[in-house]
Protein backbone atom coordinates (compact mmCIF):
# COMPACT_ATOMS: atom_id res chain seq x y z
CA UNK A 1 0.00 0.00 0.00
CA UNK A 2 1.29 3.47 -0.85
CA UNK A 3 2.11 5.84 1.95
CA UNK A 4 -0.92 7.84 3.01
CA UNK A 5 -0.69 11.49 4.11
CA UNK A 6 -0.09 12.43 7.73
CA UNK A 7 -0.77 15.64 9.65
CA UNK A 8 1.28 16.45 12.76
CA UNK A 9 0.39 19.30 15.08
CA UNK A 10 2.46 20.28 18.15
CA UNK A 11 1.46 22.76 20.81
CA UNK A 12 2.57 23.70 24.29
CA UNK A 13 0.05 24.13 27.08
CA UNK A 14 0.46 25.47 30.57
CA UNK A 15 -0.89 22.64 32.71
CA UNK A 16 -0.37 19.05 33.71
CA UNK A 17 -0.53 15.87 31.63
CA UNK A 18 -3.64 14.90 33.58
CA UNK A 19 -5.38 18.17 32.64
CA UNK A 20 -4.57 17.67 28.96
CA UNK A 21 -5.67 14.01 29.09
CA UNK A 22 -8.96 15.00 30.69
CA UNK A 23 -9.47 17.73 28.08
CA UNK A 24 -9.19 15.05 25.38
CA UNK A 25 -11.30 12.37 27.06
CA UNK A 26 -13.85 14.02 29.35
CA UNK A 27 -17.14 14.42 27.47
CA UNK A 28 -18.01 17.65 29.27
CA UNK A 29 -14.65 19.26 28.60
CA UNK A 30 -14.58 18.26 24.94
CA UNK A 31 -18.08 19.69 24.57
CA UNK A 32 -16.83 23.02 25.95
CA UNK A 33 -14.08 23.56 23.36
CA UNK A 34 -14.82 21.16 20.46
CA UNK A 35 -18.57 21.36 19.91
CA UNK A 36 -18.69 17.58 20.30
CA UNK A 37 -18.45 15.25 23.29
CA UNK A 38 -15.83 12.52 23.05
CA UNK A 39 -17.60 9.53 24.59
CA UNK A 40 -15.92 6.26 25.60
CA UNK A 41 -14.62 4.36 28.59
CA UNK A 42 -11.17 4.84 26.98
CA UNK A 43 -10.05 1.24 27.42
CA UNK A 44 -8.12 -0.40 24.55
CA UNK A 45 -10.56 -2.10 22.20
CA UNK A 46 -13.48 0.10 23.26
CA UNK A 47 -15.53 2.15 20.84
CA UNK A 48 -15.39 5.93 21.03
CA UNK A 49 -17.76 8.47 19.50
CA UNK A 50 -17.49 12.18 18.67
CA UNK A 51 -21.10 13.17 19.48
CA UNK A 52 -22.71 16.50 18.59
CA UNK A 53 -23.64 18.71 21.54
CA UNK A 54 -26.92 19.82 19.96
CA UNK A 55 -28.88 17.05 21.69
CA UNK A 56 -29.32 15.03 18.49
CA UNK A 57 -27.08 12.18 19.68
CA UNK A 58 -25.45 12.10 16.24
CA UNK A 59 -21.84 10.92 16.16
CA UNK A 60 -19.89 12.59 13.36
CA UNK A 61 -16.77 10.49 13.97
CA UNK A 62 -16.43 7.00 15.45
CA UNK A 63 -13.54 4.69 16.14
CA UNK A 64 -11.78 2.30 18.42
CA UNK A 65 -9.40 3.01 21.28
CA UNK A 66 -6.12 1.38 20.18
CA UNK A 67 -3.94 2.45 23.10
CA UNK A 68 -4.78 4.24 26.34
CA UNK A 69 -1.97 5.19 28.71
CA UNK A 70 -3.30 7.92 30.97
CA UNK A 71 -1.94 10.58 31.14
CA UNK A 72 0.70 10.40 28.39
CA UNK A 73 -0.62 8.58 25.30
CA UNK A 74 -3.92 7.94 23.59
CA UNK A 75 -4.30 6.29 20.18
CA UNK A 76 -7.63 5.92 18.38
CA UNK A 77 -8.91 5.03 14.97
CA UNK A 78 -10.99 7.73 13.29
CA UNK A 79 -13.78 7.12 10.77
CA UNK A 80 -16.95 8.53 9.32
CA UNK A 81 -19.79 6.40 10.76
CA UNK A 82 -20.74 5.42 7.20
CA UNK A 83 -17.24 3.94 6.76
CA UNK A 84 -17.04 2.22 10.15
CA UNK A 85 -17.13 -1.30 8.68
CA UNK A 86 -14.43 -0.49 6.10
CA UNK A 87 -11.20 -0.64 8.11
CA UNK A 88 -9.18 0.53 5.10
CA UNK A 89 -11.04 3.86 5.28
CA UNK A 90 -10.09 4.55 8.91
CA UNK A 91 -7.37 6.98 9.84
CA UNK A 92 -5.46 6.93 13.12
CA UNK A 93 -4.93 9.70 15.67
CA UNK A 94 -2.18 9.59 18.29
CA UNK A 95 -2.07 12.05 21.18
CA UNK A 96 1.36 12.14 22.85
CA UNK A 97 1.41 14.19 26.06
CA UNK A 98 4.89 15.07 27.32
CA UNK A 99 5.39 17.03 30.56
CA UNK A 100 8.18 19.56 31.07
CA UNK A 101 8.17 21.49 34.36
CA UNK A 102 4.92 23.54 34.34
CA UNK A 103 4.01 22.92 30.71
CA UNK A 104 2.97 20.05 28.48
CA UNK A 105 3.88 19.36 24.87
CA UNK A 106 0.90 17.85 23.08
CA UNK A 107 1.71 16.20 19.76
CA UNK A 108 -1.26 15.12 17.66
CA UNK A 109 -0.43 12.84 14.75
CA UNK A 110 -3.29 12.11 12.35
CA UNK A 111 -2.11 9.46 9.89
CA UNK A 112 -3.46 7.20 7.16
CA UNK A 113 -5.47 10.05 5.67
CA UNK A 114 -7.09 9.34 2.30
CA UNK A 115 -5.34 12.03 0.27
CA UNK A 116 -3.75 15.48 0.37
CA UNK A 117 -7.13 17.23 0.53
CA UNK A 118 -8.07 15.24 3.64
CA UNK A 119 -4.66 16.01 5.16
CA UNK A 120 -5.21 19.75 4.60
CA UNK A 121 -8.69 19.53 6.12
CA UNK A 122 -7.34 17.62 9.14
CA UNK A 123 -4.49 20.10 9.64
CA UNK A 124 -6.89 23.06 9.62
CA UNK A 125 -9.30 21.28 11.94
CA UNK A 126 -6.65 20.30 14.46
CA UNK A 127 -5.23 23.85 14.52
CA UNK A 128 -8.67 25.25 15.39
CA UNK A 129 -9.63 22.60 17.94
CA UNK A 130 -6.28 22.54 19.71
CA UNK A 131 -6.15 26.34 19.90
CA UNK A 132 -9.50 26.19 21.66
CA UNK A 133 -8.29 23.39 23.99
CA UNK A 134 -5.20 25.43 24.93
CA UNK A 135 -7.27 28.55 25.59
CA UNK A 136 -9.73 26.62 27.76
CA UNK A 137 -7.02 25.03 29.88
CA UNK A 138 -5.02 28.22 30.31
CA UNK A 139 -7.87 30.68 30.90
CA UNK A 140 -10.82 28.58 32.05
CA UNK A 141 -12.92 29.45 28.97
CA UNK A 142 -12.75 28.56 25.28
CA UNK A 143 -12.26 31.18 22.58
CA UNK A 144 -15.28 33.53 22.25
CA UNK A 145 -16.05 32.24 18.73
CA UNK A 146 -15.59 28.76 17.28
CA UNK A 147 -12.23 28.98 15.49
CA UNK A 148 -13.22 26.39 12.85
CA UNK A 149 -15.85 28.87 11.60
CA UNK A 150 -13.26 31.51 10.62
CA UNK A 151 -13.30 31.66 6.81
CA UNK A 152 -10.13 30.53 5.08
CA UNK A 153 -7.89 33.39 3.98
CA UNK A 154 -8.90 35.74 6.77
UniProtKB/TrEMBL annotation:
Gene3D superfamilies referenced in this protein's UniProt entry, alphabetically: 3.30.530.20
Domain Activator of Hsp90 ATPase homologue 1/2-like C-terminal: 16-138
Family according to the record: Belongs to the AHA1 family.
Protein's name in the database: Activator of Hsp90 ATPase homologue 1/2-like C-terminal domain-containing protein
Source species of the chain: Streptomyces ruber
Amino acid sequence: MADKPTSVYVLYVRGTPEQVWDALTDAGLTAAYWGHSNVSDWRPGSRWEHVRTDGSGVADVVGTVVESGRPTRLVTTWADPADEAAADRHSRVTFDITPHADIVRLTVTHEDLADEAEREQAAAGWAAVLSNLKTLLETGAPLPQDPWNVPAGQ
